[in-house]
Fold each of these.
Amino acid sequence: MKLIGRYLSPFVRRTAVTLNAYGIPFENVQIGSDDPKVMETNPVGRVPALVLDDGETLIDSNAIIDHLDHEAGPEKSLTPLSGKERREVLRTVAIAVGACEKTVAAAYEQRFRPKELVHRPWLDRLLGQAESGLKALDKQLGSNDWLCLGRMTQADISAAVAFQFVNMARPKLELEKSCPNLARLSAKLAETEAFKAAPLPS
């Protein structure tokens, strides 16, 4: 398998960590969404894409991870395959992914607009949404070991990836102070082989 995209993208990285957690070997093709070659795997030029061994290409981290979960089967899946437990995990994942999306949107606002045209209220709203999402996850986690179901799920992987990404992109938010429970979870998962094998670029 080939995973297209750099680990700087939280969407690529959570996919890579999931592949590692399942023990699925893959090659990471380190190209960004601005590389023309990305269009060969996704016509809208987004990462990640996962090229399966038979040549089929899956796009979007949610769709890729859903495929991996079903391949793992109900006993090993990091996301329950049905029922209330599945909805609980997916809801939590959606908050984590949403925090990443808002942070990326904030980065684009500053990167691609001329400095004098950056709309500060919009930028502040985006960052406020990202921080609000992470604070909600921090409250949900509390003193527990895991976010959902009393065990590690995709919610924990996505939340840790989100925390690490936002913390890197926006250090002035001081997430270690505002989200101490997430900081604890993130530090714990950072020491696992699944995360170590998909490092966030420094």
Amino acid sequence: MSTARSKLEGLVELAKETSSDRRRELLRDITDVFLEDPGSYNSLESQHFGDIMGKVAYDLERQVREELAGKLSAEAAAPPDLIKRLAGDDIEVARPVIAQSPVLKENDLIEIANQKGQEHLFAMTARPDIGEKLSDVLVTNGDDRVVEGLVRNQTARIGRTTMEKVVERAGSNADLQGPLTDRPDLPADLMKDMLAFVTEDIRAKILDQTNQVNSEKLDELLQDVGSKLGDQAAFKKGEKSKPEIVIQKLVAAGQLNEAKLVELARQRLVPELICGLSEMAELDMPTTRRAIVDRTGEGLAIICKSCGFSQSTFSTLVNHVWPESERSIEQSCTLVALYNQVTPETAQRVIRFWRVRQAADGASTTG
């Protein structure tokens, strides 16, 4: 039996002392002995230290555990079981451990996040090693303060899907908008989506941060893409295309809605988006396709406004509809302003005109 092991077993006997003052002193002594050279103990010896410290600390008042947590929070060789126990304690005990202990792994933190309240989640947002899985749990379970804390942590890794959730929440929480635009990993298309709802100062900040695209080059790109898009979305008479079949299934399942169109746009499924908009606006697909490829954005604004879509949805659709080009932030701002100028009454009037025109076109074709 090693000298360390023998010493630890002797400390176990000392831990049976009944005096609170003596046991507090004993805990400090044990902790100090361990912290003199924590890396020198093997896993079994470290576990013994953890068992002793835990036994003494949890027989005393919370203040003792707070002190112990503070001492062990940054130690990489701290006993894992004791660290996990402290991390699940009251927030005054858990905070330093949750915020910085290298002993806690992502799965440990996710388990705590799924069991504890907002204070524990907020403490996690200070960690330097937040991975994508934990980020998603924090956004899913956390309140606005937690989400803001996560977004402000520049070292946190936030996946695309999670970032979309944060951008959506930023639409109703202005406090998230500034920290979001400060993140270098915020995708450009999501930044453009934010133009639909950000405050004027944040919009100016986005414009200042983003390099503008040459307008003549953009026009050439949009003309080329518009032509290709027309080919992609060309549907043969009398036959059901794959995009049409997809949309018909969504309609049958009651799942074709505004959110689904946003999803299709973000996935760059433009033919399916055309079919979905055609269905929801009660327009034929050639008319819908012409509206979508119109680089002014006016046609898409008319359709979205007539369907009662939100400004955010219009912004998302218009910024994802051309898969091979990027519209500048400045142009996106102009389109959002355009959308706000279109009234529902005007949009409905235009839609009625388009329906009459498509009926006339159909009659002349069959006549």
Amino acid sequence: MKKWQSMLTMGIFIMFMTACNSGDGKQPENAERPVNQEGKTVVTLSVQQESPFYDTVERKFEDKYPDIDLQIRVIEDYEQYQNTINTEILSGKGPDIFEISGLPIKDYVNKNLLLDMKELMEQDETLNHSDLQTNILDAIKSNGSLHAMPFGFNLRAFVGDGDLLENTSIDDQNWTWKEFEHIAKELGASGAERRYAMAGEAPDFRIQEMIVDRYAEFVDTAAKKAMFDTPLFVDAMQQIKDMYDNQVMTSEAADLGKQMFYSTVLRSPADFINDLHLYFSNPKLLQKPEQNGGTRIVLSSQFAIQAKSPVKEEAWKFISFMLSEEGQSIQERQGFSLLKSVNKKQLTDIQEQIGSGTYKTPDGKAPKVSDEEFSMFEEFIHTADNYSEADGKVIFIVGEESMAFFSEQKTAEEAAKLIQNKVTTYLNE
């Protein structure tokens, strides 16, 4: 992979970027475009992790656009990446395209530092718009704008033992954690041996996951206001503690088949088989108790275009390439595809292999999966529309400070007040 190629090129690039540093985020009409020694237009991309994926992306993109030199910079230290990119973007310098995961995207948007890709995407005739997973792209828009683009996505799934739940009526679109606890107690005591509802995660993890699912109920991002010192949050913590105290949940790991439900992240169509069928022979996809909206979308990374980039057109060509069939079919790309056809093909290939008996799960077993399940898997992908813009620092504070309550060192109200104060301070820094 090429890094920044030469000090001369870097100097030219910085000079051009500095020349574009206007207060309104617009590029001057006479802004010069950075070029390398061969006369190719230089487009810079900053990422947080070196990967064979980017090697392949660079090669394939430059093959398609031989007049563009894609230069990729990797800063693998997380804090260094955050500090470096933040400083560069705020000063109007830095990369044309950059991985924005973990950076203050809303602050950048408010300062007009990011390009809104919504209109560019709508006008791009090279894209097969009917094939795009618009449910994902619509969900991640903010106020109708699209300032960050993923190259793939993951899905948070809540899974139950279908055999155990066969005779149990569950309205999973509306159930609460209290109802979940009641159902789990009845089912757990009905068999020859006790089964936990959920296992393998501590209560601080459970409260963190719950807050991600319901983030807007506890944090007003626009107003930078926290709402953790409320009966709603206190009750949520108490509910989780009750489930651990009553042995409905446990922090200890459970053997396969010894728990009734589990929460997992699906990262590809193959995970519908390899993950779901690992625990249960008849897995049932459910909506998590008290989760607002549908299936939650999980993004591992997103990419933004700097509004002051002198090569916005070429930068968009890169994003558009990554949304094309060629870009989405790159083997090293992670996550479900943003193209329906790519997801469909992967599911169909797996379905055919299972039908012929040639598909094996990682533990060497040949799973039994009905055609109806594959239809449900496809619907699960197409109906996912719940994206939480949860701030990782806020979630960390909730997990860290809630442990004082779960370990009975503080009351729920005391822990909630401490979380409220720390999150409020953080949001207003």
